[in-house]
Amino acid sequence: MAKVAGDTYIALVLDGSGSMSADIETTITGVNEIIDLMRAEKARLAGKVKVSLVLFRNREGEVVYFNEDARVAKHLDHQNYVPSGSIPMYDGIGQAIKLIDGVIKDDDAALVYIFTDGWENSSSIFSRDEINNMILEREEKGNWTFVFQGIEGLEDKQELNFVTNNTFSYTSSNAGRAEAYAATAEGFAKYFDARRSGITQLNNFYDPNTPDIIINKKDEE
């Protein structure tokens, strides 16, 4: 029987660039449904669920909030989500990883969810190679999960070290974004089911037809 793991740290890393202004309402609704799901799932988990929200736009990762209890994590709205500028995606991812690094313990689990509708074009702190190494190093620990959503044909998905079944390509349209957020809500429900079993890493977030490919480091030791 899997050992029940500790706390869960979630980072929502969202594209806040100007192109996202084309359909703000779908993004706000979709992300808030994910936050609501986390609020509900917290009641079914023994450990804490902490949520951070990071935007990437114009400058390095902009922290909207950090390490909030899932039960009171703030919704996305028109005050804290105002798309503008370019896409420093690597800086947003790097910022989120560093934030969780400061609080996660060996018995805990972390999930970093990234959503973008464009290409990285303006990071000034982290390079692609640095982000690749950061992802690989943490995945090897057995308690980090990285999830990525991008528009169809996005090169960044292929260039970064994301597990194939933890990525989702969507069409650049209102319907495409809505489908992407709905798939992510289903993936989060699956992830929390795994957490209740003590699983600390999930490698098939978006693939319902593949058996769980998981690593639970605490059980292996």
Describe the structure.
The protein is of the alpha/beta class and 221 residues long. Helix 1 packs parallel to helix 5. It has a six-stranded mixed β-sheet, sandwiched between helices. The model is unreliable at 211-221 (pLDDT under 50). Helices cover 34% and strands 21% of the residues. The chain has helices at residues 24-42, 89-101, 128-139, 155-159, 174-196, 217-220; strands at residues 8-15, 49-57, 59-69, 109-115, 144-151, 167-170. It contains six helices and six strands, in the order E-H-E-E-H-E-H-E-H-E-H-H. The protein has a single domain (8-220), classed as Rossmann fold (3-Layer(aba) Sandwich).
- Relevant CATH superfamily: von Willebrand factor, type A domain
Task: Estimate nothing, just give the exact number of structural domains.
Answer: 1
Poorly predicted ranges (pLDDT <50, ≥5 residues)? 211-221
Examine the coordinates and then state which fold CATH places here, giving the name of the CATH topology: Rossmann fold
The CATH first-level class comes to: Alpha Beta
Total helical elements: 6
Order of helices and strands: EHEEHEHEHEHH
Percentage of residues in helical conformation: 25-40%
The strand order across the widest sheet is 3-2-1-4-5-6
Q: Rough shape?
A: globular
C-alpha Rg (nearest Å): 16 Å
Structural class: alpha/beta
Indicate the proportion of strand residues: 15-25%
Would you report the number of β strands? 6
Looking at the chains present, what oligomeric state does this protein adopt? Answer: single chain
Largest sheet: 6 strands, mixed
Mean pLDDT: 89
CATH architectural designation: 3-Layer(aba) Sandwich
The first-to-last residue Cα distance is 14 Å
